[in-house]
Design brief:
With about 525 residues, the chain is mainly alpha-helical. The protein folds into 2 domains: about 100 residues, Serine Threonine Protein Phosphatase 5, Tetratricopeptide repeat; about 280 residues, Rossmann fold (3-Layer(aba) Sandwich). It has 24 helices and 5 strands. A 5-stranded parallel β-sheet has the order 2-3-1-4-5, with helices on both faces. Helix 5 packs antiparallel against helix 6, helix 11 packs antiparallel against helix 12 and helix 20 packs across helix 24. The chain starts with 20 loop residues before the first helix and ends with a helix.
Length: about 525
């Protein structure tokens, strides 16, 4: 979701509008600094305004936007909630608030904020688009499709909307939308990202229509375009991944874990469900969350915020900087992490489920800071896993996702770091294989519950999921949308069988590089 403020202006009737020219000038300078990338300067100017006018909507809005852009979502929520309370019916504040709530894994609250924004101003197309995304996250795909279709009816030249629309409904052979996208692709003036979005939408529609060869060509074209957009400067992304994984394994040795394992108290139970994208995390999360003793936090990310806003200098030198913390600092960090989950501990909840993809790398940190944390490693056939990543559109920058060799490294390194966690935390790790989940979901869920000391809950049964096979809508499952596990979920390798050799060879090359780098 996008949620940044428009040009900052002081609301009519505020102290700044009645003569507080100093604050108006500070806000203009803050906006200019933000646009130029001088975020610290922009924050300082906004805080100067808020010291004089604590309810200045423009300053609160800008602070919320900057915090959100930095992935400090709890901080963003505080500023935007204050802006909402100060401005009541400001539709932009409500829209931004909805986006942050969605990032924090609170889709119902996000939908309510977006509806309120649309009540005040129903013409805001970005808010309508965000609302459709939230509706889909709540399992209301048909309603989301209607909103996307309406947006495209008013303005068909919206590549991002086409890409999102392609994900919420099935397009049979002969669907007129295929020709509409092909006409758009012939137009001049589109940027590389926009063309990539259209190619991914076209690929999904052709896949629905039963044409894997044409679908893969469209996905391939989209990946080439997006690779150019997301190409990282400096050290290539795959080298960064190798280096980061190696640093994690170097820091989190058995001796380091033993030395710190007694410093932190057990707090709320946490279960990290981790693995590469499309490895079955959401398929597993859905039935687990139905258990009366488990609650889902979804992809809530608080580790980044905890590290960035706690001990000075910790984030810059992480993970090696953890070695410098004494027992008191480590316990303080653990307290901050627990506070950032955003709600008090409920003693009726045995564990809170987390599926944020970055937690595969951060698992060691979370498990040390909270000894009540368990890890569930989701693994899938590496070729199928790499294929599934290649066919997925990632909304945010993801330089490893658009090239077959880079994806092969992603999958290979992820499996290595997962094996490391299983080795150093042997009593707190469970392994779930995607193929077993697809073949017998109830047995798989039963084994994970047993590892948590929990008995089977009939509500976890696969028959309680939505009957939405991949041929209808490609639902996977989550705390908001739990689909019944369908054997079709595991057939990507069969559908794109002609492409498997390319991915097999890439994985073989990646494995050799990993072996050589670890010596």
């Amino acid at each position: 979701m996008r949620h940044g403020p428009a040009v900052v202006q002081s609301p009519v009737g505020s102290a700044a509008a009645r003569g507080g020219v100093g604050n108006s000038g500070r806000l203009r300078a803050a906006e200019q600094a933000r646009r130029a990338g001088r975020v610290a300067e922009a924050e300082r100017l906004c805080k100067e305004v808020l010291r004089v006018e604590p309810r200045n909507i423009s300053a609160l809005k800008l602070m919320g936007a900057m915090a959100s852009a930095a992935r400090l979502h709890n901080t963003a929520l505080r500023y935007l909630a204050a802006a909402r309370d100060a401005g009541h019916d400001d539709p932009e504040v409500l829209s931004m608030l909805g986006g942050v709530l969605f990032e924090l894994g609170r889709p119902e609250a996000a939908a309510a904020a977006l509806r309120e924004s649309l009540r005040v101003d129903g013409s805001r197309e970005q808010t309508l688009e965000d609302y459709a995304v939230v509706l889909n996250g709540l399992g209301r795909a048909a309603e989301a499709a209607e909103v996307f279709a309406a947006l495209l009816g008013g303005n068909p030249s919206q590549p991002r909307v086409w890409q999102r629309y392609s994900q919420v409904r099935h397009f049979p052979r002969g669907a007129p939308e295929v020709d509409r996208i092909r006409r758009l692709l012939r137009q001049r003036g589109l940027g590389a990202r926009e063309r990539a979005q259209l190619q991914f939408a076209l690929g999904k529609m052709l896949e629905d229509a039963g044409d894997p060869e044409s679908a893969f060509r469209a996905f391939e074209a989209g990946n080439r375009l997006r690779a150019g957009v997301d190409r990282s400067r400096g050290v290539p992304a795959r080298q960064q991944l190798h280096a980061h994984a190696r640093r994690m394994t170097d820091v989190f040795t058995p001796d380091f874990i033993d030395a710190l394992s007694g410093h932190c108290a057990r707090r709320r139970g946490l279960t990290l469900i981790v693995g590469t994208p499309r490895s079955g995390k959401s398929l597993l999360e859905g039935p687990l969350e139905a258990h009366r003793s488990l609650v889902s936090y979804g992809e809530l990310d608080t580790v980044h915020e905890t590290l960035a806003r706690s001990v000075k200098g910790l984030y810059r030198g992480y993970p090696e900087s953890l070695r410098m913390l004494d027992a008191g600092a480590f316990e303080h960090l653990a307290e901050r992490l627990d506070a950032n989950w955003g709600d008090p501990v409920c003693h009726d909840v045995a564990s809170y489920l987390l599926t944020h993809p970055g937690y595969l790398l951060h698992a060691g940190t979370i498990m040390l800071l909270n000894p009540a944390t368990r890890l569930v490693l989701c693994e899938r056939d590496p070729v199928d896993s790499a294929l599934a990543i290649y066919l997925k559109w990632f909304e945010k920058k993801q330089p490893l996702a658009w090239d077959i060799d880079a994806i092969a490294h992603w999958v290979t390194v992820s499996r290595r770091i997962a094996a490391h966690w299983a080795e150093v935390f042997p009593d707190r790790v469970s392994l779930v294989r995607y193929e077993q989940m697809v073949a017998d979901p109830d047995a798989t869920v039963t084994s994970v519950l047993a590892a948590h000391g929990l008995a089977w809950d009939p509500a976890c049964g696969n028959e309680h999921g939505l009957d939405a096979g991949p041929g209808i809508v490609g639902l996977a499952g989550s705390s908001s949308v739990r689909s019944r596990v369908n054997s079709g979920f595991g057939r990507i390798g069969e559908y794109y069988a002609a492409q498997r050799p390319r991915f097999e060879h890439a994985l073989e090359r990646a494995a050799r590089v990993c072996y050589e780098s670890t010596g």
